[in-house]
Amino acid sequence: MQINRLPPKAGYIWIRQGIWLFKQNPFTFLMLVFLYIFIMQLSMFIPLVGIIVVLVFNPCISVGFLTAAQRVILRQTVKPSIYITAIRELPPAIRMRLFKLGGLYTAFVLLISLVSSQFIDVEKIIPLLTTGEMTGPDLIQEMYYALIVAVVLYLPIAMLMWFSPQLVAWQNYSIRKAIFGSWLGFWFNKGPFTVYLCTWALVLTAVPLFVGGVFESLGIKQYASYLITPFSMLAITVFYCSFYAIWKGCFADSAPPITTETTTSI
């Protein structure tokens, strides 16, 4: 498996490809992302265990979503059951490997949660977590601090896990080899990833804050969610769609392909 080294501008191209892919079947991708978010919220009703189950299945969900992207490109019908059918189609040994990868991912996430709790004052941000409202500059500062800590701690995990599910499912790599390959793919393309992640950070944080500020200045901040919520849902869906473009861009001969028509269309 050859790993491509791409210029920084590839990060912007990935986003454009994600937009192109989303436009091929917006309803399907919105449905898949909504289903994933719904499952995440549903897991909250089972303290700790629910979250752990979702984390363990995260690599399988990743493979399912990217399989859906493949089939949309091939003009095939995609159903919500793709999260299950995509895994069922894999050999039992690979399925088991994905579950083990999910267990490792869960351990990583729980570890950074414990570490981050030593730096973040959760009691200060409870008002935002429970009501969605910022009550003052101290809370805003605490939220930004918590976000920075979370990003710094999660980034190494992202590097190890970004490509691992695909390498296990589609290239039949061992867990160790997949994690190493994921790290190499991320590191060799740190320029594009910097452009890509910074652009999405700006879109997903600055835009909602700006819209919220405008609505608050007009004295109608209670209506801001009617604009911010659909925008965030749309942006997150395009964000997920761009994952397939990243996979194709970083790994040569990695099936299934984005067609020539796809590339020229963007």
From TrEMBL:
Q: Which key words tag this protein in UniProt?
A: Membrane, Transmembrane, Transmembrane helix
- InterPro entries the record matches: BPSS1780-like
Q: Is Glycoprotein a UniProt keyword of this protein?
A: no
**Which positions, given as ranges, span the membrane?**
20-39, 45-69, 98-120, 143-163, 194-215, 227-247
Source species, domain of life? Bacteria
Q: What is this protein called?
A: Transmembrane protein
Please spell out the taxonomic lineage of the organism that makes this protein.
Bacteria, Pseudomonadati, Pseudomonadota, Betaproteobacteria, Burkholderiales
